[in-house]
């Protein structure tokens, strides 16, 4: 039982907690997405008679389902698997919160732009197409749906791969011989970034290089959480 259970902490070991949380997320998201798809079909969306904006509404609904599944499973895993009293800490929406939000958005944009610029300069990537929206879609919806989708995806990934995985993997690494708390955080940071890259391996047109790139992006995106302890 030592491989699966930490008797000292009276809970499953970190790796199993991370695995179960992610499987729970994938399953929950699939169920919610199925319900959402059925609801959209019941309103005639996706039946072949869609309006120009139907695809965008479906995109936004799927993004909301992913975010709901992420938040719900992170909280549930935190309570049942991690045995935490407060799995998700609620931050007051004060000036510091808004400044952190602005800085995080700016930092994320700069980091991703930096990665893209370096790879483009090195000739590692080529832009073959750009995102588009269905012709005739309402302009407000055409802007809102993609922004909402990426916002939901970003928050969901922060909850799963940063807030949940780094914390748990770092806690698990502390039991390794010769590992101090700082080294444990570093291990959790790198390990969660590798998982982040592998999890995106099923993306359209994914490749080994693309997976490595996403893992590198995970390192960048996790830096803020590791340095500040705040998402």
- How many domains is the backbone divided into? 1
Question: What Rg is obtained from the alpha carbons, in whole angstroms?
Answer: 20 Å
C-alpha end-to-end distance = 34 Å
Describe the global form.
globular
User: What is the H/E string?
Assistant: EEHHHHHH
Order the strands across the largest sheet as they lie in space.
1-2
- Estimate the helix proportion, in percent: 55-70%
Mean pLDDT: 84
Structural class: mainly alpha
* Range of strand content: under 5%
The low-confidence runs, each spanning 5 or more residues with pLDDT under 50, are none
How large is the count of helical segments? 6
Please give the number of β-strands: 2
The major sheet is characterized as: 2 strands, antiparallel
Tell me what the structure shows.
This protein is mostly helical and 231 residues long. It has one domain. It has six helices and two strands; from the N terminus they run ββαααααα. The protein has helices at 14-42, 54-80, 95-121, 139-173, 181-199, 208-228; strands spanning 5-6, 11-12. It has a two-stranded antiparallel ribbon. A hairpin with a 4-residue loop joins β1 and β2 (11-12). α5 packs antiparallel against α6 (208-228).
